[in-house]
Amino acid sequence: MPQRSSLQDGGTRAELQSLTHEQLLQRAGSGQLSAQQAVAALTALQGDAALRRHPALPALFDLLQRDCTELQIRDLVQLLRQSLRLGLRPPPSLLATATQQLCHRLPAEAPSETCYAAWALTKLRFDGVTSLLEAIDAQVQQQQQQQQQAAAGGEEQRHAALQPAPPWLARLSPTLLLHLLWACGKASFRSPPLLQGITASLAASRAASQPGAGAGDGTCPPRPLAGLSAQQLSILFYSLGLLQWSPSQQFLQHASEEARRQLPFFSCQGLSNTAWALTKLGPLQPSVAALLGAAADAAAPRLADFSNQELSMLLMAASSQPVGRSRALMEAAGQQLEARAATLSEWDLATILSALATAGHRPDDAALLAAAAAAERLLPASMPPSSLAWLLWSFAHFRHQPPRSLLRKAERALRGPQLLALYAAEPAHLARLCWALAELGYYSGALLADLAGVLRSVWDRLPPQSAAMVLHSYAHQQFTPHELLDAAAEHLAAHLGDYEPQSVAMAMWSFGKLGVHPGRGLPAGGLCTPDGTPLMTAVADYALRRLQPGEGGGEPLTLQGLAMLLWTFATLEHPPGQPLLEAASSHIVSALEQQQAQEQHGMQSAADGQGAALGSGACLRSVSQVAWAFAKFGHADEALFAALARRLPPAGSAEDAPQSLTLLAYSAAKLRVQAAPELLRALLPAAERHVGGLSSDEACQLLWALGQVGGLAGEVPQPLLDASVARLAADLGLGSSSASARASRGGLSSGGPDPRLLCMAVHALAALQYRSPPALLDACVRAVAASLPGSVSVSLAAQLLWGCAHVGHVPEPAQLEAISDYVYHQLSHARGNKTVLTSSNLVQLLWALAVLQQYMAQLYRLASFRAARLPEGVPEQPRLRRMLREATVLHSVEHRLDPVAAQAASALLPAPLPAPLHHAGAAAPAAQQGGGSGGQPPEERRAEAEAACEALRRAGLSASLKRLSYGDFIVAVERSSGSSSGSSSPSSGRRPRAPPLAAAVIPASVATGRAAVNDPTRLIGSALVAQRVLLARGLQVVPATGGEQTLVEQCMRLAQLGTGDFKGPRAAKEDGPGHWAAV
Q1: CA 897, CA 877: separation in Å to the nearest integer?
Q2: What share of the chain is helix, strand, coil (3-state, %, to 5)?
Q3: Second label for 210, Cα 20 to 30 Å away, from 127, 160, 584, 866?
């Protein structure tokens, strides 16, 4: 056995140091050295690249392994130390033997050597270091138990952090304690007794403490951990981060305070490791949060000195907590991204971008372009799916559209080299990838199908929030993966209680967006929950519980989630039940009232309250979706619409406001709630502000709602009507840049607007007294005629014809004939006999055909026949009774009634049709007397006629107020005495006739609905009928639309003309296409 005396060892080492490297290695390889001499030989060597490949090294390691039992602890530690110094990697068998010897001799040997050995074994990446740590842990726990037994009979046991350190650990220096803690962290060895012992030893170590202020006189105790250097502090925090173990609050406070004092002396790696570790310690204590913010501020000016890995680790840690999102740090990181994008690895590139996105800091476009170029170089083989998911997610979060070439390379990577890696990727990464593709607008059916197959295999492991994100992404892309949807529906039914309300709402919204019922094609009504409740019913009950406070527990359902759920039920035509609809209404009403009360008292809404949600930009959108769902289910909740009329939520973003305003107006008009007029008046200012963002569909629906409510004519801002008409004209191809306008403003497809909506728009514009341009009306009629036979119903066609006739526009003969023939076929066909045509639509159709002079058409005969069989002969609404009389009188004076029309007229109007003009003060026929039941015009029309009559009388004209046979008021102007007289001379023996009439004045103004709001000189509606009737009877007509002075001048000129100057009704010419002019 070799001698182990220090003298002989010294002589041996001196002798070995005189040898060259080659001689040392040759001796070791020939077996001429002992184990101790082999260790000494390693100490004498100098490391270089050639040494690591020397053929004699295996023989040297074999010698050490064979005689390892003869080495002392310090020799074993020296072996590990010299291996690290020379960059050698001893064989695992030698390291295992050395570790075994260290564990056997642990109780009797110095702790410092053992701790250094554990550190060295960890540096050598030897997995067997865990056995040595377990031996150390057993030694420490044995001593801790002895300390506890000794203190059991004494004073009460103190806190674990304040207990005296175990003697075995107390003998270690701070450096060795940190080495041991670092080795535990690298090996993920989480033994609380050992870790508590290490931290207690550090806190109690005199070498790790410094005297406090006044400590010399005993007035201030020393500061624990104040003696640690900046490097030691960074190792301390990094080791705790590796262990994901948080020591006592007092220890962390001391460590954080000392680290903040020494931050200027931290290296770049120390700052990066410390910031990373702080985010792994669980909920941040105030002192730890302050250290993270200070570290971020300290790193910002030094960011150029960080390596790529250090930079990515620092940003990832800083962005994970609000306190670390220093603006200076993020701006400097954006600059570094642009500068070093070409040198970043795929992990560093994805980490830096995702950290900036998480922190809410968008780099410059130049930095993003550089990052995209770097990613394109790394694809397709050098970027795994996880990094690619984070990369694309960041671009989508920044709303930055990367080059299409990058997205195509990403697709090739995911469908090529990385396809199998998708199955091994985290499910959350797959969800993030789907979301990014949807937000970036990159549609690839093949890629989406591949992702759907992968996701279906891991759906059970997907978190509910990620599952909802995946479904939302597919719905956004309008791609329907049926098998994936089936798996999602089954999982939702089986684990509905595990989903958060927002995830349930998003998942159900996706089914509605794709038009797929969760229980499609399945027996017994579809999927059921474990207790046997159908899925849709269970979702409705789930939403009801989350809406009612105090029931169900868990996170409450937000207004946005409620709107998404109700929208889904309405889209899938599945009633959610009356309780949920009533609860939704009560929820929104109470939230609106709460916010209104807070605003009145000058209080701001709480960040997590209902009022805050309603004050957000998405509030109006959510409320409008709820209202639309109510309209689909016919749930006319007066309280909800009345509350919205009193307090309208903010319109929100310019993108969502037009659709939200349209849906809310449409729903109120569809349900015909009492608060509809007031609500629409409240919507008008916002609609005027956002009219530029309306699409054709939205413009038509908004116009329909305004016209349907009634009573808003003259109140709708003309710029709103003009802009809506311009939008329709652009999408109908009437503008030179219509196609580009549709593309830039998100308009409709190349097929043009929906013909049904065009019918509604034309009818609404006429009801709002708006005289649309003839070219627009012709284009609408052409579009509707071209779509026939199609989805245009008889009632919509009747509304279209009425809208044209009301403003005096005659469509092109061919188009008018096509629409008339279609309506006639629908009403007279075997199935058409069952066509439901309301009384209002029937009267409007008959009136329109009469104004358009379609007396000979078969449709007119059929409409007259149906009108004669209305309940009790005529409808109850005064306006409809008046329209029927107008149509019949117009027909009687312009065209001879055929037998069918005469029979209908006699049923509608018992009084003789060709009745003469009646004085307003004289008794009218029985059919014309009475109030609204007789269909008389409103009283304001009589007041308007009386005002015109008085103005003419003041001018010296002979004027009188008269009434037509159907009850309309006019002013009759007689000829002056100097003009040709129509009376007989006294010598003729005939009875003198009444003086002839020079003209008939038709009072017409915007206020009474007889003139257009955008052109008050144009007659519309009943004023057009009165003009046609008077012209047919040989009277000259003066529309009272130009003011009192103009009216007097025109009547005076006509009163002075002779009879021969009148050209008769046949002389009336059209003023432009389809418009009758006054004579």
Answers
A1: 25
A2: 65, 5, 35
A3: 160
Task: Give φ, ψ of 214 to 5 degrees.
Answer: 80, 10
Measured between alpha carbons, how far apart are the two ends of the chain, in Å?
Answer: 139
Q: How confident is the model at residue 57 (pLDDT cuts 50, 70, 90)?
A: confident
CB 887 within 8 A of CB 846: yes
Q: Which residue has the tokens 């020079």?
A: 998
Contact of 1025 with 996, CB cutoff 8 Å:
no
- Of the candidates 619, 606, 698, the one whose C-alpha atom is nearest the C-alpha of residue 653 is 619
Distance CA 698, CA 705 (A): 11
- Could you give the CA distance from residue 541 to residue 240 in angstroms, rounded to a whole number? 46
Residues contacting 22, CB < 8 A, separation 6+: none
Which residue type occupies 837? L
193 φ, ψ (degrees, to nearest 5): -60, -45
Angle between helices 385-397 and 346-359 (to 10 degrees): 30
For the question of whether the overall pTM of this predicted structure is more than 0.85, the answer is no
The answer to whether the CB of 559 falls within 8 A of the CB of 501 is no
DSSP labels for 387-405?
HHHHHHHHHHHTT----HH
Token pair belonging to 35: 């184990």
For the beta sheet containing 997-1003, the strands, ordered from the edge strand earlier in sequence to the opposite edge, are 918-919, 959-963, 969-974, 997-1003, 1037-1040
Q: Whole-angstrom Cα distance, residue 311 to residue 317? A: 10
Q: How far, CA to CA in Å, does 215 sit from each of 222, 260, 262, 831? A: 7, 22, 21, 105
Residue the block writes with tokens 């003998």: 171
Q: Helices in 458-558 by DSSP H: which ranges?
A: 464-477, 482-494, 501-514, 535-547
Does the CA dihedral 745-747-749-753 come out positive or negative? Answer: negative
Cβ neighbours, 10 Å, residue 111 = 21
Task: Please state, as a whole number, how many other Cβ atoms lie within 10 Å of the Cβ of residue 48.
Answer: 12
Please name which of 1000, 990, 998 lies closest in space to residue 1053, comparing C-alpha atoms.
998
Structural tokens at position 474:
């597919």
Amino acid at residue number 449: A
Among 31-40, 208-217, 323-332, 901-910, top mean pLDDT goes to 323-332
pLDDT of residue 319: 92
Helix (H) or strand (E) segment spanning residue 1039: strand 1037-1040
887 versus 597: which is more confidently predicted? 887
- Cα 19 to Cα 364: distance, rounded to the nearest angstrom: 63
* CA–CA separation, 628 and 635 (whole Å): 10
234 vs 230: CA distance, rounded Å: 6
Kindly tell me the burial class for residue 978, based on how many C-beta atoms sit within 10 Å of its own C-beta (0-12, 13-18, 19 or more): exposed
β-pairing verdict for 1037-1040 and 997-1003: parallel
CB 124 within 8 A of CB 84: yes
Longest dimension (CA), the chain: 173
Average pLDDT over every residue of 994-1016:
82
275-to-224, 242, 295, 967 alpha-carbon distances in Å: 21, 12, 7, 88
User: What is the C-alpha separation between 427 and 469, in angstroms, rounded?
Assistant: 11
Q: Tell me if residue 974 falls in helix, strand or coil.
A: strand
Q: Is 660:687 a contact under the CB 8 Å cutoff?
A: no
pLDDT surpassing 90 at residue 43 = no
- Report pLDDT digits (tens) over 592-642: 888 777 766 654 444 344 433 443 434 888 899 999 999 999 999 999 999
Q: Is the peptide bond before 385 cis (omega within 30 degrees of 0)?
A: no
Question: pLDDT digits over 474-487, tens only?
Answer: 999 999 999 999 99
Residue of 273, 337, 347 lying closest to 310 (CA atoms)? 273
